Amino acid sequence: VHFPDTERAEWLNKTVKQMWPFICQFIEKLFRETIEPAVRGANNHLSTFSFTKIDIGHQPLRINGVKVYTENVDKRQIILDLQISFVGNCEIDLEIKRYFCRAGVKSIQIHGTMRVILEPLIGDMPLIGALSLFFLRKPLLEINWTGLTNLLDVPGLNGLSDTIILDIISNYLVLPNRITVPLVSEVQIAQLRFPIPKGVLRIHFIEAQDLEGKDTYLKGIVKGKSDPYGIIRVGNQIFQSKVIKENLNPKWNEVYEALVYEHPGQELEIELFDEDPDKDDFLGSLMIDLIEVEKERLLDEWFTLDEVSKGKLHLKLEWLTLMPTAENLDKVLTSIRADKDQANDGLSSALLILYLDSARNLPSGKKINSNPNPLVLLSVGHKAQESKIRYKTNEPVWEENFTFFVHNPKRQDLEVEVRDEQHQCSLGNFKLPLSQLLESEDLTMHQRFHLSNSGPNSTINMKIALRVLSLEKQARSPDHQHSAQVKRPSLSKDARKSSFKPQVPVSPPPDSNKPVPASPVTDTDKKTDTVEKSQPPNASPQWPTDLSRSSSSLHASNFSYSPSHLSVKEPTPSIASDISLPIATQELRQRLRQLENGTTLGQSPLGQIQLTIRHSSQRNKLIVVVHSCRNLIAFSEEGSDPYVRMYLLPDKRRSGRRKTHVSKKTLNPVFDQIFDFSVSLPEVQRRTLDVAVKNSGGFLSKDKGLLGKLLIPLASEELAKGWTQWYDLTEDGTRPHGAS
Q: Which intervals hold domain SMP-LTD (predicted)?
């Protein structure tokens, strides 16, 4: 790949070579003093983890080129992009004494573009206040392990695989994660720790014309035009549109909102694909430089697609500036119609930026005199994010950043709850109406907030800022001609396609023509957007029923995707929304006693359910396939009308519920439906899958009720590989055991 504005810097490589032994000393210190204690504290099984040897090798890191940005940058900063590659024969050995486990790394390869920002520049020695390092996009990472199988047999690690480990490491290197090295004490590090995005890009993904027809003939069975959908990427935020069936001139009319932390350098990347039963065909791509969009503020154009013979795409792009005053808010609310509706979803009028610093004097949780494992759950409307867990402390320090898109700050609240991960209980909470921020200076609050339902002096320290998203149009001269600068791809089509082409068929959500912004799925493990759309019972995605194929295709998809639509308004829970209450359990016990009537029932008196469960790290989702049930109990003389309801505990909100269709008058229903929950692997291993088989009955019918329950803790299972199993149903879900 040729970088025209990149300079070679052999003097830099000679310098790095000279410094390499000292860099290695620093890396060894990092492994021993930072990584080793972090691994030990992460899990009880890893308390005896240690590095026995750390040798990074003699081959230094190479810098293949340097680019220095001179335009569109702040006068108080210097931005460098370094094309780096490291191919090292390392020897890093580790052991976990408790399990007599030894493993190690023989070699590491890493290739990517590292951004170095020197800021703020100050009028005093050493002229540079601090240094920030990060990768703009995931670097190519290869690790050659020794004894990896021993390592993955250790309890607590058996849900992992080498690809997941590589994913986790890569994600820690990419924005918004960054390493900040202060060079001057008390420099404005607070400002560096509280990175405010440069802007928000609102992408109206409107329509395409004249796409290539990709007729597919599977031995003459399947024929048809293209079924186009788009994948849109800004940095590590990825969106996927719905699929428009059999149309070469599709109209999507969808809207997405993406954060832009860094430009120059970040681009809007779009690829179109034709959904196929076997493999999705490529229909063209587009890369647009965000500097152009920022200059124009508003672009509404037809763009010719690259890498294909024909086809064009209609986009409307808006660059929204983050304003620290509320004077434009009413105008913005009117423009996105947030002043009329009562919904909490829709286009955003503001961005909430939050720096979670620390907490003090937390209560001890359930056990007296024992320190909790605190984490923080933050939510605005239906969007929730979680902090990392801090182990065995009532004075945790998190130092983490979060951002939320806000539909109407006059009406919405920020809810903060500190939880003890160990005992799954609340350590305190508080609610902040965002209208309070509107009255604060610079729309910012930086203080200790007192926690309710907590200890007498329990506080949490946070810096919270609201920024109004304003589309400022710049005045132009009459003869000004504009067109967005489209970057021609420098990679071959095949290489581009493999970068983030999905191989999972994704069905469109039903009746979704309203432009509602999707929630971005970031590639980081650190944040999980737990927003889900509540699905009507018949809206399960039509995935391939051939499981062996579908699970392998899931594994092959190396991208995170987001459902492109959220329900505009979360429905109010219905009267009969969840019947798995103690009263339903009592009724079931009574029915069991009547059924027994002196005879002995088999090993599984309530019947069994067959499920496939696995976690896809690339998509950051737990995938559950509900196959079928057998030998259910009859609810009335005509049998039962069973359906399956699932929650991922502790979340029992309406939006977290998944339901199959109802199977009429059968005790052996076949469902074969696939459901997913947006959740990261470390998080899902602390959750429990709550499955209930229920009888549908009519509306408010007395024949509504519970047929059996199942609680599956997802802690130590081999979630990444997945498994298919028959489970016994019980009255209250306790003591489930696999039947086969």
A: 5-184
**pLDDT at residue number 481:** 46
d(CA 179, CA 192): 10
Q: 137: which DSSP letter?
A: S
What stretch of H or E contains 190? Answer: helix 189-193
CB of 469 closer than 8 Å to CB of 259: no
The whole-angstrom separation of Cα 39 and Cα 166 is 16
Average pLDDT for the chain: 77
Q: What is the pLDDT of residue 572?
A: 23
Residue with tokens 């055991």: 737
Task: Count CA atoms closer than 13 A to 215's CA, side-chain side.
Answer: 6
Tell me how far apart the alpha carbons of residues 640 and 635 are, in angstroms, rounded to a whole number.
5
Nearest CA-CA partner of 522 in 405, 420, 614:
405
Q: Are 205 and 241 spatial neighbours (Cβ–Cβ below 8 Å)?
A: yes
Where residue 626 falls among pLDDT bands split at 50, 70, 90? very high
Q: Which residue has the tokens 């007192």?
A: 450
* pLDDT digits 0-9 by tens, 1-52: 444 578 888 999 999 999 999 999 988 988 888 788 878 877 778 888 889 9
Asked if pLDDT for residue 319 goes beyond 70, the answer is yes
3-state DSSP of 686-719: CCEEEEEEEECCCCCCCCCEEEEEEEEECCCCCC
Determine whether 534 is exposed, middle or buried from the number of CB atoms within 10 Å of its CB (0-12, 13-18, 19+). Answer: middle
- Written as six digits, the tokens of 223 are 């024929």
C-alpha 143 chain-centroid distance:
24
Class of domain 199-323: mainly beta
Nearby residues of 588 by Cβ (< 8 Å), 6 or more positions away: 606, 705, 706, 707, 708, 731
Region 290-304 average pLDDT: 88
- In the predicted model, what is the mean pLDDT of residues 234-244? 87
Element (H, E) at 590: helix 582-596
Plot region of 251 (φ>0 → left; ψ -120 to 50 → alpha; else → beta): beta
The pTM is what? 0.50
Average pLDDT over residues 688-699: 82
Measured distance CA(267)–CA(261) in Å, rounded: 11
Find out whether 709 and 692 touch, Cβ atoms under 8 Å.
yes
Architecture of domain 350-471: Sandwich (2.60)
Distance from C-alpha of 617 to C-alpha of 487, rounded to nearest angstrom: 31
Give the CATH class of 582-590+602-729: mainly beta
Can you give the pLDDT at residue 461? 92
C-beta of residue 301 within 8 angstroms of C-beta of residue 342: no
* Three-class secondary structure assignment of 22-48: HHHHHHHHHHHHHHHHHHHHHCHHHCC
Same fold, 350-471 and 582-590+602-729: yes
User: Cα(679)–Cα(134) distance, rounded to whole angstroms?
Assistant: 25
Distance of alpha carbon 287 from alpha carbon 271, whole angstroms: 9
Q: Alpha-carbon distance 437 to 460, whole Å? A: 17
Lowest mean pLDDT among 95-104, 207-216, 386-395, 463-472: 207-216
The upper half-sphere exposure of residue 501, i.e. CA atoms within 13 Å in the direction of its Cβ, equals: 20
So where are the chain's domains? 10-186, 199-323, 350-471, 582-590+602-729
pLDDT tens readout for residues 119-133: 878 776 788 888 999
Question: Distances from the Cα of 691 to the Cαs of 419, 453, 542, 664, in angstroms?
Answer: 24, 31, 21, 19
On the question of pLDDT at 598 being above 50, the answer is: no
Share of the chain above pLDDT 90, in %: 25
Q: What are phi and psi of 470, to 5 degrees?
A: -120, 135
DSSP labels, 542-582: ---S-HHHHHHHHHH--S----S---SSPPPPPTTS---SH
Q: Give kind and range of the element (H or E) at residue 291.
A: helix 290-296
